[in-house]
Amino acid sequence: MEIARNDLFSAIKEIIVQSRLRIFRVANSALLESYWQIGKLIVEDEQQGKLRADYGKETLKNLSKHLTQEFGKGFDDSNLRNIRSFYTAFPIRDALRHELSWTHYRLLSRLDSEEKRTFYINESIVSNWNSRELERQINSLSFERALTEPKENKLKPNIQDYIKDPYIFEFLGLNPDVKNTERGLESAIINHLQKFLLEFGKGFAFVARQQHIVTDTSDFFIDLVFYNYILKCFVIIDLKTTSLSHQDIGQIDMYVRMYDDLKRNDGDNPTIGLLLCTEKDETIVKYSVLNDKNQLFASKYLLYLPKEEELKAIIEQDRQRFELDNL
């Protein structure tokens, strides 16, 4: 009898959840459509006023006053500016993605290029980012941290489209000013696995922690193993709480070879090895197998979210090195 009641509860719950989702989608679509039309009218009215700043400012203030008196909250001059920016950034109504909310679009409208907006729209949908995660990715310059320029509709994606440098792990809650252990870093990643996967990129699924690999003569333990279902390959991660060394590179190279030999299945592409370290010595990178193999990568990670200018400087240095190494 109890089982039947549970089944009844589950069935009714599912109906209610799906009904609310449909209501949200319809309401969200209507909101986006109305804000787009309002933005269009505001821009067209300002263009008739020859885009004079004082004119536009006064128009929004008066408009806000009348709309608030008529409809209540939601039409202050700040939100009207957001609505105007929304239309300016997305002038083609049919191109709007209704999977995204008004909060998503308010953040996207502030971006300074169509390429960035397209990147963050696609990532938000594919990776199911809520507006808070989208804001974090924008603030941490996810677009700029990609090793290669993100391109839409690539015929054949490769691992370089998914690797970032640096990675930002401020959500792990570790103190960047103290010496952390590799086991502590690994445990923090597992405890915040969902956030780690959002930072890591699309297509990754967790496989194992400290995966035991047995050979004829030795036992080895790989820190973290993921599978990317888009690239159809395993990605093994070796965590380091120190600067990159040539011993680390030799170890990840060996792990990749062993994994290909012992764990890789028919139909899987070659295994990828990623070293995550606190610092990279570019001389070691240049004169090691990292410079020759498309299966091995090293990326720096930060346990805090740096100021925008600092992060931009780090990204620019890494991008210049990457481009020089791939001429």
Written overview of the protein:
This protein is 52% helix and 13% strand. The chain is an alpha/beta fold and 327 residues long. Strands 1-6-5-4-3-2 form a six-stranded mixed sheet, sandwiched between helices. It comes from Pedobacter fastidiosus. This is DUF1016 domain-containing protein. InterPro entries: PD-DEXK-like_domain (IPR053148), tRNA_endonuc-like_dom_sf (IPR011856), YhcG_C (IPR009362), YhcG_N (IPR041527).
Properties at a glance:
6-stranded mixed beta sheet; alpha/beta; globular; 13% strand; 327 residues; 12 helices
Q: Tell me the number of strands.
A: 6
Mean pLDDT: 86
Radius of gyration from the alpha-carbon trace, in angstroms: 25 Å
Supply the helix-strand structural class: alpha/beta
How many helices? The count is: 12
Give the helix proportion (percent range).
40-55%
What is the general shape? globular
Portion of residues in beta strands equals 5-15%
Order of helices and strands: HHHHHHHEHHEEEHEHEH
Low-confidence stretches: none
| Order of strands, widest sheet | 1-6-5-4-3-2
| End-to-end gap | 71 Å
Q: Largest sheet, described in full? A: 6 strands, mixed
Protein name: DUF1016 domain-containing protein
InterPro entries: PD-DEXK-like_domain (IPR053148), tRNA_endonuc-like_dom_sf (IPR011856), YhcG_C (IPR009362), YhcG_N (IPR041527)
Pfam families: DUF1016_N, YhcG_C
Organism: Pedobacter fastidiosus
Could you outline the blueprint of secondary structure elements for this entry?
Blueprint: H1 2-48, H2 53-71, H3 77-89, H4 102-108, H5 114-126, H6 131-139, H7 142-145, E1 167-168, H8 182-191, H9 193-200, E2 204-214, E3 219-228, E4 233-239, H10 246-262, E5 272-277, H11 282-286, E6 296-302, H12 308-325
Parallel strand pairs: 1-6, 4-5, 5-6
Antiparallel strand pairs: 2-3, 3-4
Helix pairs in contact: 1-3
